[in-house]
Design goal:
This protein is of the alpha/beta class and about 425 residues long. Helix content is about 40%, strand content about 15%.
Length: about 425
């Protein structure tokens, strides 16, 4: 009898132990599942916060191959030009699309400014980036990160690279990957910005403008500097304006007229205005002023800022009045992409933009001032914002400009217009 009772107790304890082992195994399995889920979440967070190294490396490889193996030389044989065309973009250069592209150029030090520019424009942008030979790897890394981190940038921005011919064979660009979160816009502060036109090779601004224009496949272009921002919806408003005026119809883009976009400049810490109402308020407080007010007010005077500022903002983009060019006006304007290109002999500072505007005048173009559209240069233009050799650059380019004007007389022999 006693033996039977002990047998039952032993069987009961054995069953309890077995049940406990099963529970232990279930808990261990559940704990492993939780660990795997946690690791997956952490991995997902990490991958979303840091650009995928494989994608960045692949983009750098494409950029490097374009510069090394698919580049062209400029007309002087001094610079390599590489246009990058990713598979996500399909260009038909023989049939420009009925759109307007923002065309700009920058040095290796100002690539980060393309972020805010692409966000504001929300459409096709063509940029030519100038880089010294020793900065190639750094530039490719920055561009690859922009393409990885900002989908709108990769979708809308066409990139061309311009660099001096290397003195010797250059090794392939090495990715400069960092473990920190480089997809945050504030990390693209570019470090200490270089002085305007500071380049050991001579900054070829007109070559860059031409390279960027040629890489665009839209009927209209707006050529600006990279440190400018257009008014909000400028592209969309112009598309409506051009459609209503029939500017996209066959041969209408051959009309000799360009549309001037008034340019302003703002203090560094001012939030760029979105519309004319905001701009007018900032002009009243002195935080925004007409472009080049201090450096060369007469260079923008024919825009007639007083008339433009007094004109009420309309519901749609419209022209206010037409102007014939007069020296030394340097307007920014929207034009057909078949207007004369920039003369690439001009480098550094002085006469690079005015020479092209001067040719438009001699060729018979009219300048029509747009209302409800404007550009804002970030930062006031002052004499201290230029490099110390500015005057030397200007004098050298002045001599080229004299020759350029003489050549225009022969190029447009039937024109009665002159650049003076």
């Amino acid at each position: 009898m006693i033996i039977g009772s002990w047998t039952k107790i032993i069987l009961l304890l054995t069953s309890v132990v077995a049940v406990l082992q099963v529970i232990h195994l279930v808990l261990l399995n559940h704990l492993d599942t939780l660990r795997l889920q946690k690791a997956k979440v952490l991995r997902t967070v990490k991958e979303s916060a840091i650009p995928h190294e494989v994608e960045v490396k692949n983009i750098i490889s494409v950029l490097d191959d374009a510069l090394k193996n698919k580049h062209l030389l400029d007309s002087t044989g001094s610079y390599r030009i590489a246009n990058v065309n990713f598979e996500t973009k399909q260009y038909v250069y023989s049939a420009p699309i009925p759109d307007i592209a923002l065309v700009t150029q920058c040095s290796q030090h100002h690539i980060y400014k393309l972020i805010r520019l692409s966000k504001r424009w929300q459409g096709p942008i063509s940029v030519a980036i100038y880089m010294d030979e020793e900065a190639v790897a750094e530039v490719f890394h920055k561009v690859a990160l922009l393409m990885t981190c900002f989908p709108a940038f990769r979708e809308n921005v066409t990139i061309s690279f311009v660099s001096p011919l290397p003195a010797k064979n250059r090794p392939s660009a090495v990715p400069i990957l960092d473990a920190k979160d480089l997809c945050q816009e504030e990390n693209y502060d570019g470090g200490v910005a270089s002085t305007n036109y500071a380049s050991s090779e001579g900054y070829p601004n007109n070559l860059l403008r031409n390279v960027a224009r040629r890489a665009s496949n839209t009927e209209f272009v707006l050529v600006i500097d990279v440190d400018m921002l257009p008014s909000e919806n400028l592209r969309q408003d112009f598309l409506l304006f051009a459609t209503q005026r029939g500017l996209f119809k066959k041969n209408n883009h051959l009309e000799k007229i360009v549309f001037v976009v008034p340019a302003f400049e703002s203090k560094e810490n001012v939030v760029p205005p979105l519309n004319k109402g905001q701009l007018l308020s900032l002009v009243e407080t002195g935080e925004v002023r007409p472009f080049y007010s201090q450096l060369c007010s007469k260079c923008q005077a024919p825009t007639n800022y007083d008339a433009w500022l007094n004109e009420p903002a309309g519901a749609e983009m419209a022209t206010m009045f037409d102007m014939i060019w007069r020296d030394p006006w340097e307007p920014f304007y929207i034009s057909s992409n078949n207007v004369p290109l920039y003369d690439e002999r001009f480098k550094q500072y002085g006469f690079n933009r005015i020479s092209q505007v001067c040719e438009l005048h001699v060729a018979g173009y009219t300048f029509s001032i747009l209302n409800n559209a404007f550009l804002v240069h970030i930062g006031f233009k002052t004499t201290s914002s230029f490099h110390e050799d500015k005057e030397k650059d200007q004098e050298r380019n002045r001599m080229i400009f004299r020759q350029f004007k003489a050549e225009l007389k022969l190029k447009y022999i039937e024109s009665s217009r002159r650049c003076y």
